[in-house]
Amino acid sequence: MLGQLFSDIGAIWARYGTVYLSGIGNTLLLATVATLIGCLIGFVCGILQTIPCAPGDPLLKRVLLTLLRGLIRAYVEVFRGTPMILQAVFIYYGLPYFFGVTFKDIWTVSILVVSINTGAYMAESVRGGIMSIDPGQFEGAKAIGMNHFQTMLYIILPQTLRNIMPQIGNNYIINVKDTSVMFIIGFQDFFAVHKMVSGAVFKYFPSAFLEMGGYLFLTLLASFLLRKLEKKLQGSANYELVNTDQLVMTAGNYQYPGAAPYEEKSRDYQGEKP
Amino acid sequence: MSDTILEVRHLSKTFGTHAVLKDVDFTVRKGDVTSVIGASGSGKSTLLRCINLLETLTTGEILFHGESVTGGKINQSAYRARVGMVFQNFNLFSNLSVLENCVIGQVKVNKAPRKEARDRALHYLNKVGMLPYINARPAQISGGQKQRVAIARALAMEPEVLLFDEPTSALDPEMVGEVLDVMKGLAAEKMTMLVVTHEMSFARDVSTHVVYMADGVILEEGPPSQVLVRPRDPRTREFLKRFLG
Predict the structure, then answer these.
(1) Which residues of A touch B136 (CB under 8 A)?
(2) CA of A152, closest CA in chain B: separation in Å?
(3) What residues of chain A lie within 8 A of the CB of B128, using their CB?
(4) What average pLDDT does chain B have?
């Protein structure tokens, strides 16, 4: 029985191997690009959502900020709360209805749909990531005069990125699998190849077997690479002491003329001695 | 007065119904090393955080060289860049190396060229004795070292006044000395400093001015020889007795 299965798979692969491979290529490209754009959307939402708003600010600013937050909230709820397969249909057939835009390229609309969907999840992940950062980091940045965007860009988001790497990995792996629903608008991904091939040769199980193996391989590979990336983002556990110094000879020594040696402990800690 | 850098006028701060600062008036002059002392909860840290606009004032105003920074005319970020702050918990940027911590503010806020910023950062890191550690990350160095880097980071912005919010309170006793040494050195160079502290010997030996706060008001201020040695207010006397033993 197994022999039969493998000989069927072999036959399918011999005839359609390149089609499967191009399907894998399309799946990976769509998932990767859409995840990256989705992350970008998530980070932008994160920056916008956290713009500080004090009661003393001008009314217009407060109104605009409230509106902005409401918009982001609505975006997240709508795209997190509906199936991606329907979102694809909605956007693919809906935009021509309202705006007269027709998509010449199936890639554009596929990337659009998956990015927007991923962005909705990432917006929440980023928000959580920002909340997990020590408030002292914000204060430290504020105290040296950084504004909100500088604080976010140089201090908070790099730390957030490191913290939410597992979530980004989650989203990437989900995207590798879930881009399969884009067959509904005619995107030629790995799963669409299965539909086409099995329809042509009437061998559903061997093709499905191949697909299962293929998807699992892709996700395992992705998960392995993401771990590596995560490690890299953690930074090195070691650092080099700089012993040869380019500035002055007194590296590691600090001395001030006229400053008497400090006798702090001998006085203040007397009371606590047993 | 021309050498007045900071002026706090009628400052009040309430958290909900709890009044932390009540109508505080207070001046920092160039070259002053002011120690703010008082029991926990007396409003010392809040005063400092208000001066750096990390808290919004309930009422009152803060003048920087005679101009109000709370009225919305002066850019608050630009003002903060002129007023350095050193925190109890260091608040070093954990994603950046020791050197980058001292460079980033200069480059992004003061728009200094990177090379110049790097040289200045190295200069101040050398000054606090942290030059060998420029490649380390904050998580890899000790508390006292972190605080010295935090001081270098603040100095690298070349502020006109440096605020210290209990800089040694989160440190192990053996690390207190190294940080106080650095601060003492700064005082010797006539850096204008405002220090909230529990280190009475620093207040007595280093500062030029001592402010005693209790229950959100300044009870007594003056030179250390007066406030610490011959306090007028009985509450100051009581506080000092507990502290100096």
Answers:
(1) 239
(2) 12
(3) 254
(4) 91
Spatial separation of the C-alpha atoms in residues A79 and A86, rounded to whole Å: 10
Residues from chain B that touch A249, judged by Cβ atoms under 8 A, are: none
Burial A10-34 (b: 16+ CB within 10 A, else e): eebbeebeebbeebbebbbebbebb
- The SS3 assignment for A206 reads helix
In the sheet where B4-15 sits, what is the strand order? Answer: B18-29, B4-15, B59-64, B67-68
CB contact under 8 A, A139 and B87: yes
Query: How does pLDDT run across A116-152, given as a tens digit for each residue?
Result: 999 999 999 999 999 999 999 999 999 999 999 999 9
Radius of gyration of chain A (CA): 28
Give the CATH architecture of domain A2-243: Orthogonal Bundle (1.10)
Banded pLDDT at A254 (limits 50, 70, 90): very low
Q: Which residue of A has its CA nearest to B243?
A: A268
Q: What CA–CA distances, in Å, run from A183 to A84, A87, A179, A210, B112?
A: 12, 13, 8, 18, 53
Structure tokens at B15: 């958290």
> Assign residue A79 a region: left if phi > 0, alpha if psi is -120 to 50, beta otherwise?
alpha
pLDDT at A203: 85
First to last CA, chain A: 83
CA angle at residue A216 from A179 to A80, to 5 degrees? 35
How is chain A split into domains, by residue range? 2-243
A106-131 vs A2-49: helix crossing angle, rounded to 10: 60
- Token pair 């209790």 is found at B214
Judged on CB neighbours under 10 Å (0-12, 13-18, 19+), A273 is exposed
Phi-psi category of residue A80: left, alpha or beta, with phi > 0 → left and psi -120 to 50 → alpha: alpha
For B219, phi then psi, to 5°, come to -85, -35
pLDDT reading at A262 higher than 60: no
Identify the weakest region by mean pLDDT among A84-93, A236-245, B161-170. Answer: A236-245
Do residues A157 and A43 lie in contact, with contact meaning Cβ atoms separated by under 8 Å? yes
DSSP string, B103-116: HHHHHHTS---HHH
